[in-house]
Design brief:
The chain has about 350 residues and is mainly α. Helix content is about 45%, strand content about 10%. The protein has three domains: about 25-105, Endolytic murein transglycosylase (Dna Ligase, domain 1); about 115-200, no CATH class; about 210-340, no CATH class. Strands 1-2 form a two-stranded antiparallel ribbon. The chain has a two-stranded antiparallel ribbon with strand order 3-4. A two-stranded antiparallel sheet has the order 5-6.
């Protein structure tokens, strides 16, 4: 049966009306399914929302983790309900959740799950910053900037010094999602100050050296000593050489001057590095500490052994050192270390 022009026109009009309405109905159905009609999985998934994330950024993360079907619907739904931000932290969710349920979870207080940050003794500030960078949402450049702009200061940081090297306590810290780089730095400085205060460092004087110089000496001990036995003995050598106005000639300061903690090899050419940290060419202590110090190294710097020693060199594979009073004794010890393959020939 042939359709008349009028029938064809009515059909086209009908399609133009019905088709958009059908698509709208389908879209609305899909939208509402995403919001509240879907069935989530049974397995729990931990998802971390970082400080400063926007609603779209959170939606993208939930979608990427397979927790919600549409980040667009998530953004629309949350804004329609006036939810423009959520608290940073870790939340327990399920795969393929309805957006309504996901938002309900996000509006509740998160578990403040902790990221663990371990800083060993002997780490430089730049190494500590690199460890901070490993934590989700943290940045080493921001950490270093906070260490240099007086955002955080140690009670043991002298006036005119703007450097927290050696003033961060080595330890294992639990860092939560609400903290930022400055908070971490403050925690580490506060811990150092507490430890130093318990030792009486603020009022200490060892052979005329005050608190900040004692921390410098402790950092040299930390960088050189490999065994507990050697710490007070190396402290003794440092104080004895300072008393005689001899260059300290500590290799760890050369490594620090070069700026790469991973490269421990040295040559005679390195002894000519133009740096105030070069204790071969500069008499006295370096301008700042060179590493994070342990309690044992601080104690050794505060109570050095009473010896006549002026030299030391590694003596065994365990890292113990042989100590000497004269250069001839030192040369004999060096010859033994070379024969044992402990130092380069």
């Amino acid at each position: 049966m042939t359709m008349t022009r009028r029938q064809r026109t009515l059909l086209v009009i009908g399609l133009l009306v019905v088709l958009p309405l059908s698509l709208l109905a389908i879209g609305a159905g899909w939208f509402w399914f995403q919001i509240g009609a879907c069935n989530g999985g049974k397995n729990s998934v931990e998802v971390q929302v970082l400080k400063g994330w926007s609603v779209p950024r959170i939606g993208d993360e939930l979608h990427k983790r397979g927790l919600i079907g549409s980040p667009l619907v998530f953004s629309v739904y949350t804004r329609l309900h006036g939810d423009t931000s959520f608290e940073a932290g870790t939340y327990s969710m399920r795969k393929h959740m309805c957006i309504r349920d996901a938002v309900h979870i996000l509006k509740a207080p998160p578990h403040l799950a902790f990221s663990r940050l371990t800083i060993p003794p002997g780490f430089w500030l730049k190494q500590i910053a690199a460890r901070v960078q490993r934590l989700p949402g943290f940045d080493q450049a921001a950490f270093l900037e906070s260490s240099e702009n007086n955002a955080v200061r140690s009670a043991y940081e002298p006036q005119g010094v703007n450097n927290l090297e050696g003033l961060l306590a080595p330890n294992t810290y639990d860092i939560n999602a609400e903290e930022d780089e400055t908070d971490i730095l403050q925690t580490m400085v506060t811990q150092f100050d507490k430890t130093a205060n318990k030792l009486g460092l603020a009022r200490a004087s060892v052979q005329g050296y005050g608190a900040y110089d004692i921390i410098k000496i402790a950092s040299l001990i930390e960088s050189e000593a490999k065994t507990e036995r050697d710490r007070p003995l190396i402290a003794s050598v440092i104080y004895n050489r300072l008393a005689q106005h001899m260059p300290l000639q500590i290799d760890s300061t050369l490594i620090y001057a070069r700026g790469n903690p991973a490269d421990r090899t040295l040559s005679n050419r390195d002894k000519q590095i133009n740096s105030p940290y070069n204790t071969y060419t500069h008499v006295g202590l370096p301008p700042t500490p060179i590493a994070a110090v342990s309690l044992a190294s601080l104690q050794a710097a505060l109570a050095p052994a009473q010896t006549p020693y002026l030299y030391y060199v590694v003596a065994d594979k365990q890292g113990n050192h042989a100590f000497a009073t004269t250069l001839d004794e030192q040369n004999q010890n060096i010859a033994k270390a070379k024969a044992a393959g402990l130092v380069a020939s």
